[in-house]
């Protein structure tokens, strides 16, 4: 459904004027993503006022489309972005208390750099922090500086993916839904900037000592094992792999695709990082099918300076294409 609306860039996206709210609601049901683009660039006062006045209609559009892009809103800096997102008045989800694997740097209390992994590293499609028990409901991205080449943010409707996958691999989807999954990973003692999964256990767990790390893991229901180099191997409790959404549909809410391809570094083998909740192995053929479907359904957000994207983390996966040149994309998470 709606495949005719998917494209690999923004050319086929529904573009609506920010004042055309009826148009937004009509387009959001079909467009992915939905683009709000005033004909003339707004000032930062006007963009913040617009966000404050339209937060509920944006929320409605997001619920329907899964992703919304704001272009020509006149945002240039991290402070502008911070002000714009604050105007929506949605609760912050802090990176510090998250169990994200990515190394990031805070710019403001709510704004931080997206994954600091090197330019040549692909970050594969994922739902933010779905491999942990605590995850944000929505994500904001802001393009402070687009890359010279590449660096798009691929996004994929996970509900559409699940629907297609259930038709092609029904037993696999039924297993995922019934049994959930567990994730295993090994975290270094100190941040490893060469890896997209390089956040240290000290940072991830906000723990200065091994004892404090163990206390936190026990609270979260993880099992763990220390390695000789002070790296920490952990396994999550059983987490859901399929999520029921507010409208009754379901999404492929898990980290199977990203882990399968992306969780490769000096410490980790992504193909061994996930099992079904009962310890059973994932069906590799079904995983390949999921990956191929995701690729087919993916749209690349080609950043322009000042763009903001708002993504429903329960319905939509995101990633990062490799790039050349300097790319500064900032993020902020909503609880
Ligand atoms: Fe992410």
In whole angstroms, how far apart are the ends?
Answer: 30 Å
Rg of Cα set:
19 Å
Unreliable stretches, pLDDT < 50, 5 or more residues? Answer: 1-13
Helix fraction, binned, reads 25-40%
Return the structural class: alpha+beta
Assembly state: single chain
The spatial strand order of the largest sheet comes to: 1-2-3-16-6-19-4
Enumerate how many helices there are, as a single number: 10
Order of helices and strands: EHEHHEHEEEEEHHEHHEEEEHEHEEEEE
**Which molecules are bound in this entry?**
fe (ii) ion
Rough shape? Answer: globular
Number of strands: 19
Average of per-residue pLDDT values? 88
Strand content: 15-25%
Largest sheet: 7 strands, mixed
List keywords for this structure.
335 residues; binds fe (ii) ion; 10 helices; alpha+beta; 4-stranded antiparallel β-sheet; disordered N terminus
What does this molecule look like?
By secondary structure, the chain is an alpha+beta fold. Helices cover 29% and strands 22% of the residues. It has helices spanning 21-28, 44-53, 55-65, 78-88, 158-168, 170-179, 201-204, 210-220, 256-262, 284-297, and strands at 14-16, 34-36, 67-70, 112-113, 123-126, 138-145, 149-150, 153-157, 181-187, 223-226, 232-235, 243-244, 250-251, 274-276, 299-301, 308-312, 316-320, 323-324, 328-334. A hairpin with a 5-residue loop joins β12 and β13 (250-251). The longest helix is centred in the C-terminal third of the chain and has 14 residues, at 284-297. The chain is globular. The two termini are 30 Å apart. The model is unreliable at 1-13 (pLDDT under 50). Fe (ii) ion (FE2) binds next to loops. Residues 126, 128, 318 line the site of fe (ii) ion.
């Amino acid at each position: 459904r709606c495949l005719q609306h998917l494209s690999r860039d923004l050319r086929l996206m529904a573009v609506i004027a920010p004042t055309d709210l009826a148009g937004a609601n009509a387009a959001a049901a079909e467009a992915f993503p939905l683009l709000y683009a005033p004909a003339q660039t707004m000032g930062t006062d006007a963009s913040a006022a617009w966000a404050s006045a339209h937060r509920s209609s944006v929320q409605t559009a997001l619920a329907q489309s899964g992703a919304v892009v704001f272009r020509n809103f006149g945002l240039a800096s991290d402070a502008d972005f911070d002000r714009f997102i604050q105007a929506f008045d949605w609760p912050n989800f802090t990176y510090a208390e998250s169990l994200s694997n990515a190394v990031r740097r805070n710019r403001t209390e709510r704004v931080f750099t997206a994954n600091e992994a090197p330019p040549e590293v692909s970050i594969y499609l994922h739902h933010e922090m779905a491999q942990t028990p605590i995850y944000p409901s929505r994500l904001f991205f802001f393009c402070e500086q687009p890359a010279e080449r590449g660096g798009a943010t691929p996004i994929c409707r996970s509900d559409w993916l699940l629907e297609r996958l259930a038709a092609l691999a029904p037993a696999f989807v039924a297993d995922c839904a019934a049994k959930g999954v567990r994730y295993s990973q090994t975290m270094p003692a100190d941040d490893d900037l060469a890896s997209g999964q390089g956040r240290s256990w000290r940072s991830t767990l906000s723990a200065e000592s091994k004892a404090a790390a163990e206390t936190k893991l026990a609270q979260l229901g993880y099992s763990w094992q220390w390695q000789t180099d002070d790296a920490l191997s952990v396994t999550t409790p059983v987490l859901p792999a399929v999520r029921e959404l507010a409208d009754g549909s379901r999404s492929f809410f898990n980290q199977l695709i990203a882990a399968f391809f992306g969780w490769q570094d000096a410490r980790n083998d992504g193909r061994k990082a996930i099992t079904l909740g009962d310890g059973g192995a994932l069906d590799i053929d079904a995983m390949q099918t999921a990956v191929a479907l995701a690729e087919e359904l993916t749209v690349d957000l080609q950043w322009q300076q000042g763009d903001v994207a708002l993504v429903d983390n329960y319905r939509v996966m995101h990633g990062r294409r490799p790039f050349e040149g300097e790319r500064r994309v900032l993020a902020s998470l909503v609880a």
